[in-house]
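Hi there,

I know you've been waiting on this one. I reran it after we fixed the sequence typo, so this is the corrected version. Both the input and the resulting structure follow.
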Amino acid sequence: MITTGMKLMLGGVVVTAVAAWTYGFPRGGTLGTTGLIFAFASFLLLAVVTIAIRDANVSSMDPTAAAESAAARPAPEASPWPIVGVIGAVLLVLGLVTYPVVFVFGIVFLLAAAIEWMVEAWSERASADAEYNGEIRERVANPAEFPVLAALVLVVVVYSFSRLMLWLSESSGPVLFGTLAALVLGGGFLFAYQPRLDRRVVRSVGAMALVALVASGAAAAIAGQRRIPSEETTATLAEEGRCATPDETEADHNASQSVAAKANVMAQITLNADGTLTALPLGLRHAGPTDQLTIPRSAQSNVLFRNDNATSRRLVLDMGTRPVGDDDTQLMPNQVCTALTEEGGTQFLSFSIGVATPGAATPYRFFVPGVEGQSVAVVVP
């Protein structure tokens, strides 16, 4: 007996074979012919499977078929895991052309669908009792499902919140999260006031809130984070070659005028009240003020700058020039500096010198912008 499934599959085999022959030879289309041959092979495979299992058809002449055949078994319950698997496949493909995190979520969905579907199919065949099969599935899967699901929800919530916080502006962020906090507080009061509230209502509200959070986080991630302005520091002045400016910059705002007592320094450089610049090596017995410092090569060195002058000044270490990026033809000052130091204030300068100075076209030196004719020479052995 030829079943309906057999007729359908065999008809597909014949139609695709004729279509591949008709389209391929007269027109010579490579892409179309390949697709039709693939469809022919697919229909042929399905036809062989249908013939082998006889389309699950049960013969009326078999007296035991009504109780023992596959068709006599109860139909399996509806399962969400095929849909989860499809979602995982879609996310996997989208992740290849969008964001890596989407690709990772696709892998997670596919693995979860494959494992859960396998366990569910195994438990449905454990016995003829559906209730017992459900208990078996819970006993096997729940110890792994609950911690993994909790960790996954936590990761999704944290990631969604982080995307929202980075997308919102500084003014709208506190308003939104203050509103969310008020809603959570109100919901907690409502649940406490109605202790017998239907669990389905609680689950529905929680599910809708989670979906709204994830959707908002995904939209914020796609839109990108807001522009966060970077604060200028003395390192920025050094990178841009602006250490020699005597004017106040953004890096000088609210600069500390004191240094911790435990700072490991090798010398103190002082701009005196009369405008002279002197250096005092620390840790050397009988050492007095000098106009020259010896600094080891390729070592991190620290000096203190004290300003006893009535005008706010900064200390600059001039180490010649350096190329701009990868272009060796363009040069810019190679300097490091402190922030502007008020009268009686102290600043900390940390640096490292990689080359020796003897014979250099421009010797290395400490100087103070705006104070002419005063410097402390640097010698690197």
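Quick highlight: The mean pLDDT is 82.

Best,
R. S.
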